[in-house]
Specification:
With 284 residues, the chain is of the alpha/beta class. It has helices at residues 49-59, 86-99, 113-119, 141-158, 160-168, 173-186, 202-212, 226-237, 239-245, 265-282; strands at residues 3-12, 15-24, 31-36, 64-67, 105-111, 128-134, 216-224, 250-259. The protein is globular and about 60 Å long.
Length: 284
């Protein structure tokens, strides 16, 4: 199969954004894959992950587009933050379909803040019928503290190297104990007054986004990632998150040996395979 990689530009609020389309000459599906980045990263990604993902999917016959947000990489403007990139995602979706008119729908793939951005408005585009959320970012001060207490410190107690450091004297015991109690205090929920919908914490707005999304969702969680554990803790603490993630339209895959950014070649291949297989098995 021959893959053609083409650069394009498109406009958002008077700013020119850059994207790359990976177009197979023999598409296997009428669903396209739009990769959105996490945070102020550009279209290549950590460890060139997004290039790897795009090329792997294209070889499977899936048209792919990756792009730079405003103010990131080679795109003009100022980066508005992951909570405000809905216009960028929508414009990218429109131009992806213009370049690949055979596409009937689009699946958006996002890691970390990219996954959060999908639920904060990216998935309400009429052509987006599927979303793939990878280690979604839901960090708040309280949520991070809970995850540290529940997962980080427990794992440290199981680590032989941790005990070697203690008995060898090469361990800052006082600082670690102080840090533990700081996180323990932070993990205790504090009562707050209700806020208007548009001023709710972004994890609550993410919940509203996925509740309103009528398509299919895939959640990919890395086993060696505190960000993923924070999202798990959020699901466990919320009846609404539990309800949404238990629906038939919601699929979960755990990659136990992977870290947050899939930093090894083995991990990059694994997440790319899982992504392509899910799209092709749920595509047209």
């Amino acid at each position: 199969m021959t893959i053609k990689e083409t650069a394009l530009t498109f406009q958002v609020d008077g700013n020119r954004l850059l994207g790359i389309i990976h177009k197979p000459d023999q598409p296997a599906t009428k669903t396209g894959l739009l990769i959105v980045v996490g945070g102020p990263q550009y279209r290549v990604g950590a460890h060139r992950q997004y290039i790897h993902l795009a090329r792997h999917a294209a070889k499977k016959g899936i048209p792919v587009m990756r792009f730079d947000y405003r103010g990131v990489g080679d795109s003009e403007g100022e980066y508005p933050g992951f909570e405000h990139v809905r216009p960028d995602i929508h414009a990218a979706t429109d131009n992806f379909q213009k370049q690949c008119p055979q596409l009937e729908d689009v699946v958006i793939w996002g890691l970390c803040e990219g996954a959060s951005a999908i639920l904060l408005g990216g998935c309400d585009h009429k052509s987006v019928k599927k979303i793939i959320l990878v280690n979604p970012w839901v960090r708040t001060e309280s949520g991070h503290a809970k995850a540290m207490v529940k997962y980080y410190y427990l794992e440290r107690l199981k680590d032989p190297e941790f005990w070697k450091k203690i008995f060898s004297g090469n361990f800052g015991l006082f600082a670690s104990v102080k840090d533990f109690f700081k996180n323990l205090r932070g993990s205790i929920d504090k009562k707050t007054s209700p806020s208007p919908q548009n001023h709710l914490p972004f994890p609550e707005r993410m919940l509203e986004g996925i509740k309103q999304f009528n398509g299919q969702s895939l959640l990919i969680q890395s086993g060696k990632d505190l960000t993923a554990r924070e999202f798990d803790a959020l699901i466990k603490s919320s009846a609404e998150w539990k309800r949404v993630t238990s629906q038939k339209s919601f699929t979960r895959i755990d990659l136990k040996e992977c870290d947050h950014t899939f930093s090894s070649e083995t991990e990059r291949v694994k997440v790319a395979e899982v992504t392509s297989e899910w799209i092709l098995s749920n595509g047209k």
